[in-house]
Amino acid sequence: MDHLALDQAARAILRKNDRGGYTLPTSGLYPYQWNWDSAFAAWGFAQFDIERAWLELTTLFSGQWPNGMLPHILFHKPDPGYFPGPDVWGTEGKGPIPSSGISQPPVAATFARMIYDKNPDAGRNPMAALFPKLVAWHRWFMRWRNADGMIFITHPWEGGRDNAPDWDSAMQAIDPVGVGDYTRRDTAHVDASMRPTKDDYDRYIWLVQRARGLGWDDAAVAQDQPFKVADPLMTFVLLRANRDLAALADALGEDRAELDQWTAELTAGAEKLRNTAGVFDGFNLNAGHHTGSVSNASFLCWYGHLDSAQMLDELHQAFDQCRYPVPSQKVGSDWFNAKRYWRGPTWGIVNMLIGLGLADMGHKAEAEELRARTAALMAEHGFAEYYDPLTGDPAGGGSFTWTAAVWLAWASPSNGGA
Ligand code: GLC
Questions:
Q1: Active-site residue identified among 18, 162, 168, 186
Q2: Closest residue CA from atom 3 of ligand 1
Q3: Cis? peptide before 165, omega within 30° of 0
Q4: pLDDT score for 334
Q5: What SS3 class is residue 217?
Q6: pLDDT surpassing 90 at residue 417
Q7: Is residue 418 scored above 70 in pLDDT?
Q8: Can you give the three-state secondary structure of 227-288, one letter per residue?
Q9: Active site (annotated) includes residue 162
């Protein structure tokens, strides 16, 4: 298939997963609206239907809680084929529509800015309506997920990288006693070897039950949850999103002082995520140590506008080791597993964020190399959820919304790449 036919196929995936106002990540495995998936979807739609792009973000923010938290899943319509559904989360009365009780990486302001810049006339009204909601969401992070400028998560799902090795030590410290019986649905759709293990799942559910027991109270969860890990992805993503929100404040004639203060605080905080080897990785706040993992999130430093010769060297190693970088865990590390979700596979969305950061920071050759290899991966292996970084084998769900969006908005040669 040539790249124009692939553009066509990617647009068809977005249309097929469109449920009228919001887009499913993929039907079957993920039958609801997911937070950061929708922001990527909006950026994909913006390449051919700008109104639909704004609608995606507007629908996402229709689920925002009064405290500013934007949930990671919005359960618009019941679907018994998914676990854990609204009955497990128990968030009744917390938000305007049924939802989970945790958030997800705040990429939305960055994509809102890019969509706005594409067509400021079409964007003025929806952007003006979204602006205070984005500020409220970022304020929620700064208040309840902020450890001295490092953004932490209280559940592995909040960070969007469910079973990353960055969480291992915090997960091992949990004894999921009393979690009870439950039936997973994910392994009915995808081979279990590509998904988190039963040990992980018991702890995921136990953490949900525990936060529910705390009434989803922000202060109680932030203080008492046994899982608290500062995350390079969350920190770099919020840092970048704050800058973008400040640029939008200028465009809309809004005040940016609070946003600039957050940007300064997060820039200082991100430095603390650099471990003794010079790599940005997770920091287990309860135990007080770094995790020592080189993940694809480590390479988001440029996206947050922090440079690092050490990380550039790591990137060159990843290019040498993998035909289809960037692996979610360094090849050769004890944790590496080419097929298991966030412990090795390559994810198109993270590649795009890394590529945008590299280009911003003047590493043009690396940015172009990453884009070209990601394009080859998708052209040869389809629009999968994630891929084996060595062979390119597709893994997880197929016809995946955010992968198609990444093709349209970044990887496709239609965007001017080689
Ligand atoms: C998985 C991913 C998460 C994503 C969701 C829907 O849970 O780890 O990042 O948002 O699937 O695609």
A1: 162
A2: 160
A3: no
A4: 97
A5: coil
A6: no
A7: no
A8: CCEECHHHHHHHHHHHHHHHHHHHHHCCCCHHHHHHHHHHHHHHHCCECCCCCECCEECCCC
A9: yes
Please indicate whether residue 281 is annotated as part of the active site: no
Given a contact cutoff of 8 angstroms between Cβ atoms, the answer to whether 328 and 349 are in contact is no
**Cβ contact 101:29 at 8 Å:** no
pLDDT in tens, 202-223: 999 999 999 999 999 999 999 9
Catalytic residue among 7, 37, 231, 385: 385
Q: How far is CA 236 from the centre of its chain?
A: 11
Domains of the chain: 3-146+233-269+294-415 (1.50.10.10)
Instruction: Give me the chain's average pLDDT, please.
Output: 97
Select from 98, 102, 112, 101 the least CA-distant residue to 40: 112
Reported as a pLDDT band with limits 50, 70 and 90, residue 35 is very high
Q: How many CB atoms lie within 10 A of CB 199?
A: 12
- Residue 416: CB atoms within 10 A of its CB come to 7
The alpha carbons of the chain give a radius of gyration, in whole angstroms, of: 20
Share of the chain above pLDDT 70, in %: 100
What is the model's pTM?
0.98
pLDDT value of residue 290? 97
Q: Which residues are near ligand 1 (CB < 6 Å)?
A: 25, 30, 34, 36-37, 160, 162
Token pair listed for 5? 């036919």
Q: What is the edge-to-edge ordering of all strands in the sheet holding 283-284?
A: 146-147, 150-153, 229-230, 283-284, 289-290
Distance of alpha carbon 193 from its chain centroid, rounded? Answer: 22
Mutate to test the pocket of ligand 1, among 17, 24, 30, 158 (most ligand atoms within 8 A of CB): 30
Rounded to whole angstroms, the Cα distance separating 273 from 405 reads: 30
Query: Which of these, 323, 334, 410, 336, lies nearest to 371 by C-alpha position?
Result: 410
Q: Which residues, 6 or more positions from 358, have their beta carbon under 8 angstroms from its beta carbon?
A: 302, 364, 366, 367, 370
Mean pLDDT of 216-245: 97
